[in-house]
Amino acid sequence: MNTCVLIVDDRPTNLRIYAQFVTLMGERYSAVTYADPVEALHWLRDNQADLMVVDYRMPQMNGAEFIRKVRMMPGTSEIPAIVITAHQDRECRLAALDAGATDFLQSPVSHVEFCSRALSLLTKSKKSVTLRQRASETERKHAKVGETTSTDGPSGKSMLEQIIDTIPIMINATDRSGNCLFTNAYQSALFDKDPDEMVGADFANFFEPALAANSRRRNELVLKSGLAIPHYEEKITSDGVDLIFHCNKSPLLNHKGEAIGVLTTAVDITARKFAEEHRTHLALHDMLTGLPNRVLLAENVKSTIDHCKKSNSEAALLLLDLDRFKIINDTRGHHSGDALLREVADRISRVIGSEDFAARIGGDEFAIILNKFDSVDSINSRCTKILNAINEPYAISGVGQVISASIGVSLIPGDGDEYEEVLRMADLAMYDAKANGRNCHRFFSEDMNEIAQADAALENELRDALNENQFSLEYQPIVDAQTLEYVGLEALIRWDHPVRGRLLPIQFIRVADDSGLMDLLGNWVIGEVCREIKAHADDGIDLPRVAINVSPRQFQNHNLCEELLACIEANGIEPSKITIEITEELLIDNNEEVRATLERIRSHGVGISIDDFGTGYSSLQYLRDLPANCLKIDRTFISRIEHSAADRAIIGTIAHLAHALGMRVVAEGVENDAQLDLLRISGCDEIQGFQIARPQRAENLRKLFDGRKVHQPSRSAEG
Q1: pLDDT at 634 > cutoff 70
Q2: The overall pTM is greater than 0.85
Q3: Are 605 and 576 in contact (CB under 8 A)?
Q4: Which of 84, 192, 385, 588 has its CA 20 to 30 A from that of 647?
C-alpha cells in the first residue's frame, strides 16, 4: 500500500529537497508537493494524505493557518503534521501546536532527521488506525445484526454493548482475582485478540511484567479501599509502538455495595501528550541549541544547592562566555554564528559528565553545573578539557573558524547558598577570566566581591554626580609637529568628587561603561564641548578643533549621530570644530553598524580620529574603508622610541600608511625633547603630551587663545 506525504512550501528548492527525502524512506512512500497552500487545500478535498510536511512561513498563509484549515475538513483530524520552523520561532511553534501540529523540524533539515521523524510519526499514526480498524472488525463480528422477532433491536449484543464496543476507549472489567470479566473491542484490538479469548484469563498477563505488576497493585488498592483511582497515565507498548493512555480504575459493586471487581477505562492521549511535552520543552529549552535555558538552569541550581546542603557535598557552577563572538556574527553573518553556537553546545554536551548539567542562558553564554568532582584540581582539569574542546577548529559553511572561551567558577555551597548569589559570583569570575587574557578559567574570590561592591557604590555616586553637576572638562592642547602652533584640543572629563577631590577618568570610566551610564556621561561631554566653543566664540576667541572621546558603548545608542549633530546645530558652531575619537575595539566589535554611523558623521564635516592605534587587532581593511581623517599613535610606542629601533620603525610605518590613506598622524604622550625630535623625523604631523602642555581647565583657555588664533608654546611643560 502506497504511503502519501503531502509537502507544502513556497520555495521550489525546498519542495525538491523534501520530496527527495521521501524517496529515501522507501519505495512505498511517495510525495505530493505544492508551493501554494491554497492549492494544497483543494487537493486534500478529494485526496488522502498519510503525513503532512508544512513550512511555517509562507506568503499566502502560515503553517498554523494551513493546518487549522486542514483540521476543519472531515477525516483529517488524525493526519500527523510536521511543521518546518526557524530556530528561534518559539511563538510560531506554539501557534502551530494550537492549530494541531504534531511535530517540528528546524531548518535547514537533514535527510536523516527528516526520514527518522517522518517514519516515527507514520508508524504511530498507522498503529492508531490499525487499532480502530481491529475494533471495528471485532464489533461487526459480534454484532450479528440479523433476523429479529421483535422490533426492540438487533439480536446478539445489546445496543449498550455495541456502543461500548464502538467508542475509541479501552474498557475492561476484572474480578477480585484479576480474571477478565469483560473487554470491549477497542481494548482487545490493542492486543490483537478476540474479546472472547480474553474473558476468563488473568488480564495482567497481557501486559509486560512491570506494567502487569502496576495493574495488580492498583486493582488491590481499589478492592481494598472501595475507592476509585482516577486520572493516572500509563505507557503501553503495542507492536513496538509506545502509546500513552489516560486511565481510571473504579470498583465494581454488587447489590450489597461490596467490591467484587474492578472496571478500567483508558483513553489514548499519545498525540495530546506530545503537544504538552513539546510546550514544556519550548518553555524550558533554548530553541537554537536544544539545551536547557535560564529557567531550567535556575531550577537545577536550586535543587543542587539543596542536595549539597543535605548530603554535605560540593558542586560547581561554571559560566562560559565565548571570546569575541560578535566578530563572527558581523563578518560571517548570523547564520554562521548560529551554526557555531550549535556546535559549541554539542561539544559542551559531549565533554561534560552524565551527571552534569549544561544550559544556554543567552547570546554566546552557557552555564554548566559540575555535580561530582574530587578536588579543586579536578575542576581545573575539567575546565581545561572544556576549553580545549571549544578551541578545536570548526568548519562553518565549509570555512574554517577558531574561537575561544572564558569560564568563571563559583563553588556550591562554599561561595553561596542562593541561586542569584552563586550566579553573580560565577559571573564576576568569568569577567576576571576575560580581563586576564581570555581563553582561561578563574575561580570566584572574595576580592572580586569586594571590587564588585565597591563598583556598585561608585555607580550610585556616579548617578548622584550626574544629577548634581559634579563633572567638568579639562583640555589638553595639540600642536603642529613642525611649527609647534596650537592646532587642536582634546577634551578630558574630570569628576570633582565632594570627598575624594578631582578624579581622573581611569578612576571611574570603567564603572560608568559597565553600568550603562557612559551614554549619559558621553552626551554631557558633547554638550559641554559645544557650549564651551560657542561661549569662547561669543567672546571673540576662536578655539581650534576639539577632540571628544566616544566609547564603544555610546555607539549602542543608535541616535548618537543625530544627538551630536543636533548639539552642534543648537550651539551654532561649525561641525569641523569637533573631532570624535574612537578606539580599535569599536572597529572590531561593531563593523558594519559603526562604519555606517561614522560615514554619516563624517559626511556632515565632523572629524574622526582613531585613538590608541596599534594596541588593538583591527585589520588594515577596516582602516582603509573607514572615513577617518586622523590616526593617533598609542603612547606605549612613544615611550620606547628613544631606545627601540623597532618602535621607531613601527611609528614611521604607521605614519607612512596613514598619509597614504589621507590621514593626519598624532603622537600622544610626548614627554621630552628627544621624543619630540624623533617623532618629527618619523613623519608625525601633530604632537600631544606633557612636553607640550598639561591639560588646562576651561577658564585657562582664554589665556592661551585670547587675541590670537594660534599660540606658539615653549618647548617645556605648561601648568
Answers
A1: yes
A2: no
A3: yes
A4: 588
